[in-house]
Amino acid sequence: QVQLVESGGGLVQPGGSLRLSCQASGFSVDRYAMVWFRQAPGKERERVSCISAIDGSIKYADSVKGRFAVSRDKAKNTAYLQMNNLKPEDTAIYYCTMLGYLGQGVQVTVSS
After folding, report:
1. Which end of the chain is more exposed for a tag (fewer CB within 10 A), N or C?
2. What mean pLDDT, rounded, does the chain reach?
3. CA–CA dist 82, 12 (Å, integer)
4. C-alpha distances in angstroms, 50 versus 58, 63, 97?
5. Are the C-beta atoms of 74 and 58 separated by less than 8 Å?
6. Spatial contact of 22 and 81, defined as CB atoms under 8 Å apart
7. Which of 67, 63, 72 is nearest to 83 (CA)?
């Protein structure tokens, strides 16, 4: 069964960190382009990062550059989004997507 299962969301104080996981089944997470995006209430969907399938290069939205980092673990067939120095404006539901498949989304709430 082909699917993406996300985990790792939660409530964190400003300045804190979270790591989101996106575990793939049915295909190899390191072979294809991957996008993390987020959706906050009342705001447009925002692409947070993307990994190129061609050369593995990574791009980040300006809003998260220097604070977020993506990685992939081939052995665990899992991709990660490490989020540091979180801000209240990072509050959103975060999704991973690959090959047209979408994770179920995880809520990230940054609040004191």
Report:
1. N
2. 95
3. 13
4. 6, 14, 10
5. no
6. yes
7. 67
- Structure letter (DSSP) for residue 82: E
pLDDT at site 56:
87
- Tokens coding 93: 């539901």
Q: What is the mean pLDDT of residues 82-99?
A: 97
Question: What phi, psi does 90 have (nearest 5°)?
Answer: -85, -5
Q: For 18-63, write each residue's pLDDT tens digit.
A: 999 999 999 899 889 999 999 999 999 999 999 998 888 999 999 9
Residue type, position 59, single letter: K
Q: Answer for the pair 33, 52: CB distance below 8 angstroms, yes or no.
A: yes
What Å distances lie between residue 20 and 2, 42, 54, 55, 68, CA to CA? 19, 23, 24, 23, 11
Listed in sequence order, the residues at least 6 apart from 65 whose beta carbon sits closer than 8 Å to its beta carbon are none
Q: N- to C-terminal Cα distance for the chain? A: 40
Q: Which residues contact 26 (CB under 8 A, 6 or more apart)?
A: 1, 2, 3
